[in-house]
Design a protein that fits this description.
Shape: rod-shaped
Oligomer: single chain
Strand content: 5-15%
Order of helices and strands: HEEEHHHHE
Radius of gyration: 44 Å
Number of strands: 4
Number of helices: 5
Largest sheet: 4 strands, antiparallel
Length: 209
């Protein structure tokens, strides 16, 4: 009887130990699972933070580019003009009633210093074009304000021709040739006068005798 009664009493500590081990194992497992979840959440948070930072940098870079473009436009707008003065032109005019000649001084306002250097490189051909243009003018055409404005536009056109630039001549009267049967007429394409690297022509002297 005593031996049988002692047996359950001896088993109680063993059962208590097993239960304690089981509880500890469950606690450790829960801790590991919790740690894993926390680690995943931290990684997701770090990834989101990195993505937000990258978007912020891209947005900042975009704003910086816009700001740089605005500054460049502002600088271009306030940039000092570049002028190329030409030696005076003396030419006989196309008057038939009497001999008339003109002495005209020109200064070209150009886009930038690079265009100024290019103008100087083609200067002999440019002067030739200007002289040919002036030689076809009469004193009556050059004496009026409108005639001077037309001349200035035409000078801008002939000044860039040696550089391979063909500009539309707004003052020229185009004669329509009769169409050839079975053949379409080809029209030459010209650049706009606003696209010319020579922005304006300034008259430094204008004498007609």
């Amino acid at each position: 009887m005593s031996a049988a009664a002692a047996a359950p009493a001896g088993d109680a500590p063993k059962k208590g130990k097993k239960k304690l081990i089981l509880i500890i194992a469950v606690v450790v497992l829960l801790a590991l699972v919790g740690g894993g979840v926390a680690l995943v959440m931290k990684k997701n948070h770090d990834a989101e933070a990195a993505a937000a930072a990258e978007d912020g940098e891209e947005s900042s870079g975009h704003h910086e580019k816009k700001s740089a473009k605005k500054d460049k436009k502002k600088d271009d707008k306030h940039a000092l003009p570049v002028f190329v003065p030409l030696d005076p032109f003396v030419v006989n005019l196309a008057d038939r009633e009497t001999d008339r000649f003109a002495q005209i001084g020109l200064t070209l306002e150009v886009e930038d210093a690079h265009v100024a250097d290019e103008i100087k490189a083609y200067l002999p051909a440019i002067r030739n074009n200007v002289l040919l243009l002036l030689g076809h003018k009469t004193s009556a055409e050059l004496m009026t304000p409108d005639g001077k404005e037309v001349l200035a536009r035409q000078l801008r056109r002939v000044a860039v021709q040696p550089m391979g630039i063909e500009l539309e001549d707004e003052d020229a009267v185009e004669e329509e040739a009769p169409p050839t049967p079975g053949k379409k007429k080809k029209r030459k394409r010209f650049d706009s006068l606003d696209d010319s690297p020579v922005k304006s022509v300034q008259f430094s002297s204008f004498i007609i005798q």
